[in-house]
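User: Design a sequence. Structure:
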């Protein structure tokens, strides 16, 4: 299926120069002179090699159709994650770097949505949010205005985020897996 280059999104699978690539991230760049272009970081499905490519916004690319299936995360083995098919209990290996910035948010028995092309896993998506514990939170600065009152915090998975001043170390919070941002206090 042909699509315009400016519609490329992370997680899609495209065919380019006779090879299949998973899009890791894309960025629209608008230079001072000339037209905008799309810079795409992508990974070869067969070899695992990474590259980046640039297309003009009007260029078209061949997008491969993917089938979505849910898998349960079992464990990480080197540079791969091991997923289990909840129906057949078969294990599938997937390159950890296909998760990109979401990798630190993996949790035991988490259900991931995996994109398959002809039965082969090419990308995985975590649930939109996870619950993590705040292990370190800066004290509130007196006189700080409400508008800029978020403070840095370290989470139990080692990532850093910003939290409102009333969040203390030891509390459990809901965090977006897309960018690690604070959503709300965890219930219960």
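Assistant: Done.
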């Amino acid at each position: 299926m042909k699509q315009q280059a400016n519609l490329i999104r992370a997680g899609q699978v495209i065919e380019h120069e006779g090879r299949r690539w998973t899009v890791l991230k894309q960025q629209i760049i608008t230079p001072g002179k000339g037209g905008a272009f799309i810079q795409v970081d992508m990974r070869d499905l067969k070899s695992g090699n990474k590259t980046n490519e640039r297309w003009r916004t009007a260029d078209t690319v061949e997008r491969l159709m993917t089938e979505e299936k849910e898998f349960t995360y079992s464990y990480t083995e080197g540079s791969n994650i091991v997923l289990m098919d909840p129906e057949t209990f078969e294990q599938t290996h997937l390159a950890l770097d296909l998760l990109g910035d979401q990798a630190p948010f993996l949790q035991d028995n988490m259900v991931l949505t995996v994109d398959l092309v002809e039965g082969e896993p090419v990308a995985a998506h975590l649930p939109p949010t996870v619950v993590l514990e705040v292990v370190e939170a800066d004290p509130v600065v007196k006189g700080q205005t409400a508008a800029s009152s978020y403070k840095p915090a370290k989470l139990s998975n080692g990532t850093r985020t910003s939290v409102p001043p009333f969040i203390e170390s030891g509390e459990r919070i809901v965090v977006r897996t897309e960018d690690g941002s604070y959503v709300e206090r965890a219930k219960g």
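The two ends are 46 Å apart (CA to CA). The mean pLDDT is 88.
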